[in-house]
Amino acid sequence: METGNRNREQSPFDKLKADKARLKEVIKISEQNLGKDLLYIRDNSVNLMISGFTSALFSPGKPRKEQEPPALSSGGNMQGKSLKFSDYWAIGRGMAPIVWDIVQPFVVVWGINAAKSLIGGIFARRHKKALRA
């Protein structure tokens, strides 16, 4: 009987081993779920961004009556309002880093081309003056 009790009782070291194995399994499952979520976001990032942008900017001013929850329709005062300038401003400020990431390569290329044409124009004028003299 005494040997059976010893087999059932785990030592603290065995408990730690079991916890470690359990946590490794939980981490593995969490990593798989996170990987699936990131893959979905990567594959659908453009669609998610466009749908969020359009729903924020072009949502209807007043919600349709069949879409209103019953708790809001009983209030009487709770009607949908159109977006104000401050709402558009907040949306614009939130999207500014994304827009900058998109526009930045074009601005850099434009700046390089402008610098090339400016510098090239300066040297071309000097070269023409030297040929005329």
Essential attributes:
about 130 residues, mainly alpha
Can you describe this structure?
With 133 residues, the protein is an all-alpha fold. 79% of the residues lie in helices and 0% in strands. The protein is built from four helices and no strands. The longest helix has 48 residues, at 85-132. The chain is elongated. The N and C termini lie far apart (116 Å). Residues 67-78 have low confidence and may be disordered.
Question: Percent of residues in helical segments?
Answer: over 70%
Strand segment tally:
0
Low-confidence stretches: 67-78
- Enumerate how many helices there are, as a single number: 4
| Dominant shape | elongated
Which series of helices and strands comes N to C?
A: HHHH
Biggest β-sheet description: none
Radius of gyration (Å): 32 Å
Instruction: Please state the average pLDDT score.
Output: 77
Structural class: mainly alpha
Strand content: under 5%
